[in-house]
């Protein structure tokens, strides 16, 4: 279940016309089921939501709890930070320092998804497993080294880099 609540800041989109994905790799496209007009159909996975007691369709809900959590982690950075904070307790994944100032970092950077067509998008880039806690100092180092790698990649057209194995920013 999402740690934060839907509020007025969340746009109401139930029953609205489907929007085409603009290709922004920072926000992946929403699934076809997101644009449903059917009450009781999960907007993330597309399956019907059943009542616990009698297996009839629950027309008052439009999200499974796990689907709502996954959606919120992908599309809402506040929720993303809350889940990473809960998992890592603010401990830097690199140096081990625990502090109040930390960043959520993508282990495999999102820019690797830049230019990828909708059908070939790798959804694991947006999952909680691809997120880590880094202190500001370590995050700055990692970002600097990743930008150098990206510049080399753009010049030489090298293949994908395995970031878990190559901690060049140590």
Number of helices: 3
Largest sheet: 2 strands, antiparallel
Structural class: mainly alpha
What characteristic shape results from the CA principal axes? flat
Instruction: Report the count of strand segments.
Output: 2
How does this structure look, described?
The chain has 170 residues and is mainly α. It has 2 domains: 1-75, no CATH class; 90-170, no CATH class. The protein is built from 3 helices and 2 strands, in the order ααββα. The chain has helices at residues 65-75, 77-88, 136-156; strands at residues 102-106, 131-135. A two-stranded antiparallel sheet has the order 1-2.
In short:
With 170 residues, the chain is mainly alpha-helical.
Which short descriptors sum up this protein?
170 residues, mainly alpha, 2 domains, two-stranded antiparallel sheet, 3 helices, 6% strand
